[in-house]
Each structure stands twice: as C-alpha cells, then as structure tokens.
Amino acid sequence: MQPESTPIPPSFQEFMENAQRLEDQMRNAQSELERAIVTGRSQDATVVVMASGLGKVQAVRVDPRVYEQRDAASLQAAIMEAIQAAAANAGTLATEKMGPVEINLH
C-alpha cells in the first residue's frame, strides 16, 4: 500500500501559476522587443540610427551633405548622439514592456 501524497497547498499552487504567467509575459515582451525598431537622431538630423527594442543596432543612415563639409569631428559627434538617442528610446520601450532594464547597444 502506497502512502497518500500530500496535496500541494493552494497558496503554493497559486504562486507557481503566477510565476508561470510572469515568465510567459516576460518572454512575450522580450519577443516584442526583438521585433521592435527604435530610432535615434543626431541633434542636427544628419545621422539616424535604427536599433531593435533590445538595443541591437540594425542600421545607420548618414545624410550625404555631411561629406561635403568634410568635418570628421562633427560627423563623429552626430553618430554618437544618434546612438545615445536610440539607446534611450530602446530603454524607454523596454521599460514599458518589461519594467526597468539596462540597454546596451551592440
């Protein structure tokens, strides 16, 4: 004769169900962020960076008129501004979907 198994208390079962729901929500949010595209622009609008909602850079677009100016320092600053703006936008989107997270562009 086998001993009867002790039933799991309802509070523990509810905890496990809630944990599973939270895990599912986080997976869905992560999947949405992987598919989402955010942009960042330099202050002078000569550079646009597109990245996923998780911060993976997808594309960089540079206005051709910057080549006429031949100002490497300004172009470098514009690229940095656009990257920072894209990272900030990815962070904002991630916070909306998942709560506070850190975004690193790579």
UniProtKB/TrEMBL annotation:
Official protein name in the record: Nucleoid-associated protein
Keyword Coiled coil assigned: yes
Alphabetical UniProt keywords: Coiled coil
Source organism of the structure: Micromonospora tulbaghiae
Coiled coil region boundaries: 12-39
Lineage: Bacteria, Bacillati, Actinomycetota, Actinomycetes, Micromonosporales
Protein origin, superkingdom: Bacteria
Cited SUPFAM superfamilies: YbaB-like
